[in-house]
Amino acid sequence: MEMHFTIPKKRPFKNVLQFKITLLNTRPAVWRRVTVPESYTFYDLHVAIQNAMGWTDSHLHCFEKRDSQASRWEYSVKVDCPYATEEFGQEENTIYTTEAPIKQFFKKAKDSMVYIYDFGDNWEHEVILEKIFPREMNVKYPICLDGKLACPLDDCGSIPGYYACMQTFKDQKDKELLEWMGDWNPEYFAPQDVIFENPRKRFLESWE
After folding, report:
1. In the chain, which stretches have pLDDT less than 50?
2. CA distance 137 to 24
3. How many Å apart are CA 117 and CA 101, to the nearest integer?
4. H or E segment at 80?
């Protein structure tokens, strides 16, 4: 069955949602704090997370609503990316990021979901709603307010690969890995460096 997805667009909003995004299993934790319009879809939020964290959006992603006692493989709701239909087909009881507003699941402080990027390296992020407040006029959203440490490099080999890159950065011994890492500095992150892309532009380019 052929599926059609809504192209992202700007929508009016009165409030903004403040999230803390933490990359799970990193010690010390790699995290970001961002504010986004309440009118965002999960696809819009995905783009904001990619930009704030520093990922390259080169892999599939999804959001999962998990119960507090559930294992990492169990979820009550899955919000999948549109591209997943080409690889996995349409799964039962699955909704899609371009079709689902974030307000559907983020209604009050402490509401949370897990954002998964790259099903091979399986980068899991805890996304927690910290608060909802009125938008400020003449302020452009989304905004990255704070954060700590550089995001791991795409395709570095999940958490073990991330720690290997950190160690190589410190001891400067593995020349081949150093060359692959380029100018990556695991300790550097500055909120003001984050540039948020237009979700509509990102979406259209991804289908070219």
Report:
1. 1
2. 34
3. 19
4. strand 77-80
In a domain, 1, yes or no: no
Place of tokens 């995001």: 151
Contacts of 181-184 with CB under 8 Å at 24 or more apart are 181/153, 184/150, 184/153
Structural domain span for residue 179: 153-187
Identity of the amino acid at 82:
P
DSSP code of residue 93:
T
**Predicted structure pTM score:** 0.93
pLDDT in tens, 30-67: 999 999 999 999 999 999 999 999 999 999 999 999 87
Give the model's pLDDT for residue 85.
Answer: 72
pLDDT digits (tens, 9 = 90+) for 126-136: 999 999 999 99
Q: Copy the structure tokens of residue 4.
A: 């059609």
C-alpha 44/C-alpha 196 separation (Å) is: 10
Do 165 and 93 share a structural domain?
no
Give the DSSP H/E element, type plus range, for residue 51: helix 42-53
Q: How far apart are CA 193 and CA 208, in angstroms?
A: 28
Q: Assess whether 144 and 158 both reside in one domain.
A: no
C-alpha dist (Å) from residue 136 to 12, 16, 38, 102, 131: 13, 9, 13, 20, 15
Asked if 160 and 173 sit in the same domain, the reply is: yes
Q: Is the peptide bond before 142 cis (omega within 30 degrees of 0)?
A: yes
